[in-house]
Design a protein that fits this description.
The protein is mainly alpha-helical and 256 residues long. It is 46% helix and 7% strand.
């Protein structure tokens, strides 16, 4: 880079908070997680829900997550005991239960098992995250803080920092309780991530692209039904672009 020759680097497009976190990382190999904000939720819905990828079972009815058949009239036959790797049938004799694991569940497992190239000791020592507990905890600043630092690290080639931001954001998303009032937090993250001034689609035929987009879109695919109930999310979808293209690809994965 020219900066290496001149020994001068000008960061004209970075916030004070992001540069401060970069300095923390440079000296300590860690950075302080951005703080959440407490906001008053107006007229909370009695049906406000929080999802975290839980499995819900309805007897003999497909509910979008699983199909469960309880107490069949006869014991499972040998044919029933054959596991179909494509559709994920699991049979247990003890409970006489056949559970169908859907592509949506497989997508959630993919998200949870996602790992980035960071030392395991980092994950244990510095990549701790705080779980949100109620719908008044606005996590927009938390999500964007990690994402903005990722963009900085990606631009300037600080690979270790880039991987740490992805790890922290991943841990935050997988433990995040998506309350009705907090759907907007995820929408703001999507809006930032799919702004071409921040990240660009560098996808190729092998399916590789920007790692931040990949992570956030994987989470969006898992929480699609919940986010669909948010008017801000639907408005963002109406803008089209690469976000909608990637979402369609993700939904096709869910269809198996």
């Amino acid at each position: 880079m020219a900066e290496a020759t001149s020994n001068i680097a000008t960061f004209g497009d970075v916030s004070v908070e992001t540069f401060t976190r970069f300095c923390q990382f440079a000296y300590t190999r860690n950075y302080a997680t951005p703080t959440y904000k407490i906001v008053e939720v107006q007229q909370p819905s009695q049906n406000s829900t929080a999802t975290k990828g839980e499995s819900k079972f309805l007897t003999g009815i497909e509910n979008g997550d699983n199909v469960v058949f309880l107490e069949p009239p006869t014991d499972p036959t040998e044919e029933d005991l054959v596991v179909d790797d494509r559709r994920g049938f699991i049979t247990t004799k003890k409970s006489k239960r056949i559970i169908v694991r859907t592509p949506q569940q497989d997508l959630r497992k993919t998200l949870e098992k996602l790992r980035f190239d960071v030392p395991s000791k980092w994950v244990e020592d510095v990549c701790h995250v705080r779980d949100n507990t109620n719908d008044e905890e606005d996590y927009t600043s938390v999500f964007l803080g990690h994402a903005e630092l990722y963009v900085f690290a990606d631009k300037w080639g600080v690979l270790d920092l880039k991987m740490q931001t992805l790890t922290k954001l991943h841990l935050t998303l997988t433990s995040f309780k998506l309350f009705e009032a907090r759907r907007r937090d995820v929408v703001e993250l999507l809006r930032f991530v799919y702004d071409n001034e921040n990240t660009r689609d560098r996808g190729d035929d092998a399916g590789t692209g920007d790692e931040l987009r990949t992570l956030v879109m994987l989470y969006t695919g898992c929480e699609f039904e919940n986010l669909m109930k948010c008017s801000d999310f639907m408005e963002l979808m109406g803008e089209g672009g690469e976000l909608v293209q990637d979402l369609m690809k993700m939904l096709l994965r869910r269809l198996g």
